[in-house]
Design brief:
The chain is α/β, with parallel strands linked by helices and 377 residues long. Helices cover 38% and strands 11% of the residues.
């Protein structure tokens, strides 16, 4: 087996990146991944989560644990850990076992399911994981399936059983994001007292909306809602208007790109400069600005929680409102924290003014650099 299976951080897809950020935001309780690859883990790595050791952070979720069978379950008892359950096996786990074998150590059972019969059944060790963990997650939270055919009978039956017992009443108790809907999905939806019309978010393979677009859309709406909550009532109207424009996934809407690229970088800069400061929830000690990660490239600071006034989001809202409309000429994805005006051929870099509240709140110090020759030249 090749050892270069991992996706490079720069290769993260928007869907994995947005999902990993929602993990840090505590908007996801657990992930059950039926894939062997590590695209998801790479995305979690890239937003600053670690697999194993804990880092001082002023937010709750700081690491994740992969659970393939019951031998991995003790890792979930640690503080600040997010569960990634992979009952069909994981390439990283295979590599770990291979290295263990090469070192002359005894290895336990190996999980790597391929055939349809293997995918329909799980071992007693894995059944223990499903019964004690996955069922609890299903009973506690709404269920979102992304690209899932629901053909694994053991998992489908567990979901149906729990859904019938708990009778969740949320509007989004069950949601499927996929290219198609089948009878297995209908069985699950019925257990939630739902049907295709109120549970199915269809995505396309060659046209929009794609799965990437839907996850970016959810991310943008979440960011707008957080900023609306942070600003005074008198400043909410332009943000509410943008939220209304994103009533449905719009892959070409600039705010989706703004929330995916510019906003996370801005928030990270604010914390790194000490404009924002929180405490480690484990030690109740202040986190120094130098301890806030600037790498990896997608390191994410949650937009919610931490029980402090979010000056970073207030300033971001002011800046978004101040940008001349429409936003279509702006590219937010080409320079970290910068805005490229394609019409004027200029790159705008927003510079922090410092820790003083009034200075920071006014968002002064905007500079621009001419990147290309004028269109008239």
């Amino acid at each position: 087996m090749r050892s270069d299976y991992r996706c490079q951080v720069i290769g993260n897809t928007p869907r994995h990146r947005a999902l990993a950020r929602f993990v840090v935001e505590e908007r996801v309780r657990a992930i059950v991944s039926l894939n062997w690859d590590t695209l998801l883990e790479t995305a979690l790595d890239s937003v600053g989560l670690t697999e194993g050791g804990s880092l001082p952070r002023p937010w709750k979720v700081t690491k994740y644990a992969r659970v393939v069978d019951k031998t991995h379950m003790p890792m979930l008892a640690q503080a600040n850990v997010f569960p990634v359950v992979k009952p069909h096996g994981c390439v990283r786990e295979l590599e770990r076992l291979r290295n263990q074998f090469r070192s002359g150590n005894t290895i336990g059972s190996v999980t790597f399911k391929l055939t349809s019969s293997e995918l329909s059944n799980i071992t007693p060790d894995q059944q223990h994981v499903v019964n004690t963990n996955v069922r609890n997650y299903i009973s506690e939270c709404p269920l979102v399936g992304i690209g899932w055919r629901a053909s694994e009978s053991y998992l489908r039956e567990a979901i149906v059983e729990i859904a019938n017992q708990v009778q969740r009443t949320e509007q989004d108790a069950f949601t499927l994001i996929d290219i198609c809907w089948n009878s297995d999905h209908s069985e699950i939806a019925a257990a939630y007292s739902k049907n295709k019309s109120d549970s199915f978010a269809q995505v396309m393979t060659d046209t929009n909306p794609s799965t990437d677009c839907v996850l970016q859309w959810l991310q943008a709406r979440y960011a707008l809602i957080r900023m609306i909550d942070m600003v005074p009532n008198s400043e909410q109207a332009p943000l509410v208007q943008l939220l209304q424009e994103l009533d449905q996934p719009n892959c070409d809407h600039p705010v989706q790109s703004w929330a995916d690229f510019w906003l996370p970088t801005w928030v990270r800069i604010c914390w790194r400069m000490g404009v924002m400061q929180g405490v480690d929830p484990q030690t109740n000690k202040l986190i120094g600005p130098y301890e806030i990660p600037v790498t990896p490239r997608d390191a994410h600071i949650p937009l919610t929680g931490m029980s402090i006034e979010r000056l970073d989001l207030q300033a971001a809202a002011k800046f978004l409102i101040a940008l001349p409309k429409p936003l279509n000429p702006y590219r937010f994805d080409l320079y970290p924290g910068g805005i490229l005006d394609m019409d004027k051929q200029c790159l705008y870099l927003h510079c922090q003014g410092g820790k003083r509240r009034s200075f920071f709140g006014d968002i002064r110090g905007c500079v621009y650099l001419t990147m290309y020759k004028s269109k008239n030249e």
